[in-house]
Amino acid sequence: MTRSIVLCIALITAIAAAHPALAQSFNVRLGQTSLGVLSFDAAGPRSVLRSTLTDTPLGVFNGTFNGVSEKTGAAQKFTGVSQSSRKSRQVSTVIDQGRAVQTNVTPEKERTDLSDIDKVPQGVVDPVIAIGGLINASGGCPKGVHIYDGRRAIALAPQESAQDGDTLTCKIAYTVIAGPGHLSPLRISSARMRLSYDVSGGGKSSRR
After folding, report:
1. pLDDT for 28-60, tens place per residue?
2. C-alpha distances in Å from residue 105, one per residue of 19, 93, 168, 171, 177
3. Which of 25, 26, 30, 22 is nearest to 6 (CA)?
4. Which residues pair with 148 in a beta bridge?
5. Coil, strand, or helix at residue 204?
6. d(CA 83, CA 85)
């Protein structure tokens, strides 16, 4: 089944990430307009998030993102590769119990102040883990989470929810809390996203 997540355009950029293993596939939309596809897969200690955006307004967010997060001992190692007509970038991080302990960004010019691990707030997870948590949330709307992508820290915070029959809709605020906003020189630092879950049978086995 193909499902859709309705997102603000700024948020899509942030999560442009990978192709996962528990093959869940989603349409990414801005209103009623399809922008591309997001997939998430999880198998054992390894999760993959992948996105391909082909129809964003003026093409400014078009591109691919492939992200892999793998548990190594108590730590979580993340590698993300972004490619567009404007640039290519690879970021890797190691997060141990909510604390960033290693970050590498290539090319070097893509580093930011938050690529210095001493400046990263504690209590963060990588983008793959965060988006997997949104997709697989159960028992209501997802809880808030702080993300570190190697270049900035982001807060996802629940705002409001509503249920209509078997559909639970959750609105989430996306805010860059440290480091630069997205899409220089625009520096977009906030957005809204809407997640719709099928809660028939008391669970959230599918999202629309």
Report:
1. 877 778 888 899 999 999 999 999 989 887 787
2. 21, 9, 38, 32, 20
3. 30
4. 153
5. coil
6. 7
